[in-house]
Model the fold of this input.
Amino acid sequence: MIRVKELSFYYNRDRMILDKINFCAPKGQCTAILGNNGAGKSTLIKCLNRILEPRQGAVFVDGKNIKELGRKDIAKYIAYAAQGSTGGRFTVFDSVLLGRKPYIKLEPSKEDFGIVESVIKRMGIEKLALRYTDELSGGEIQKVMLARALAQQPRVLLLDEPTGSLDLGNQHEVLAEIRQIAETEQICVIIVIHDLNLALRYCDNFLFLKDKRVFSFGGVETITPESVKEVYKTPVTVREIGGVMTVVPFPC
Amino acid sequence: MKNPRTYKDYIRHKKLFILFTALIAAFAALWAISAGSAGISLKEVMLTLIGRGGKQSSIIVFNHRLPRIVTAIVAGTGLAAAGCVMQSVLKNPLASASTLGISQGSAFGASFAIIVLGAGMQNQTFSGITISNPYIVSVCAFISASLSTLIVLALSSFKKAAPEAMVLSGVALSTMFSGATALMQYFAADVKVAAVVFWTFGDLGRGGRSEIFIMSAAVALSLLYFFFNRWNLNALQNGEETAKALGVNVTRVRLLGMLICSLTVSIIVSFVGIINFIGLIAPHLVRRFIGNDHRYLLPASALTGAFLLVAGDTAARLIAAPIILPIGAITSFLGAPLFIYLIFKGARVK
Done:
């Protein structure tokens, strides 16, 4: 479980980016961070594991204040997968092995190798294990980065646009996998995502950011035509189509 | 190499590659000892090295050729390893001693020692240049090179050690040092300018035992530091944010890494003169074969650097024997075509 208390961030004192953010994301569930471009979604999740240092406020993971932990210890609690980055000429296996970095002293142990193998298997990328990451497709890279994050065996998983460069089939495959991992491993997953319909389908909690603050936070009931219109300045209707809650913009 | 089937196979390939580079470097060193105006066969070299050679070959090997070749091995190792780390820490394929102002800084220091402190000049004879006080030249070159490094690092730490800030301030500083050197040379007597030019060409035969010892110690310490940071360097390849999320103190790895690289290169350059291309080409060459994993990239780059410098120096001694061509010019002249070949071959593979 991750609890965020009065978190504020700015690069320049005159221009706040995040202003007194409060929320609490439970374990075993997926929480979506939503908001328009430039609302500070990515900045918010980077503040959670101190990639960016919050200026004020505190973040607690399972009751521990992360401000009091060293970088290595934070990495054992919180994993982060960046927006579509590649790692240059590393094999998939080595890229995932890097997830064990916080635990490795000099050389990876047998246990480290075992964890990496099982994570690779779980993500279904065994066949890619010895391919170089700079030769993979967007969807495959996303899975590799997810696998690396899981190899950290975190309590909290931060994902920045995990479906940003994926096709329809891969979007659903990756998010379904993430959701299942959250449930079975009892990890708290926080996802920055643009697609409201994907969020509605795979997330349990929804946090809307607007004007540097939390606009609303809660379950599926917080996604109403009114709230979406307010945040995105776009008229929508929310309907059930084929048994799935769906946001339809500009309804006729 | 055929495609490996298991991770173990794949690691074995990389280890074999390192062994291969080590063997090539060792063979090049032996060949370099045997090659020269006083021809000594490989067999004799071996015998002499284990203490069973003749008196004359002992003198040639131990007093003339071995110090030079050990210098080449140590300098090549240090330059290549430092180049490799600078490239990955700054995430810039062009990062090297010359882009960061280290070479220009040391050239300025050497010029200052020769011109202002009068540590050397050209004699009447054709190539007779005496550096009358090599220690002062080395010390000045080292001080000035590390000064330029420290300024670059101090400036970039205002920007949280952003790689672009380091590269750009390095370029700015190298221009400034080149300008200062040019000004100094403009007002200097031509015999002194000749001595400066001679110094900057680089010469592996300059080092005596104590110089070799200092260089070896510096290179060994920096290799040790790089060894302990190989996982940090790997993490950094995946971007600053990912590295931070993996528990790496990015700012510290960057600043300390750059400091150690620069000091090592400064020490080498202040003893042997400016040898630019090794630090750039060795890591790029090796990356093509075994990828970016610093567990293997670093040792293989270091060995390849040693090989290249030994081979380059031997070529410099043999091409126009008995004249020894300047090593800095040879590595650049022969290195550049090889480098261009690598780049374009790389483009075709992708």
Remarks:
- Chain B touches chain A at residues 3-7, 10, 228, 231, 234-235, 237-239, 241-242, 244-249, 287, 291-293 (CB under 8 Å).
- Residues 97-201 of chain B form one domain.
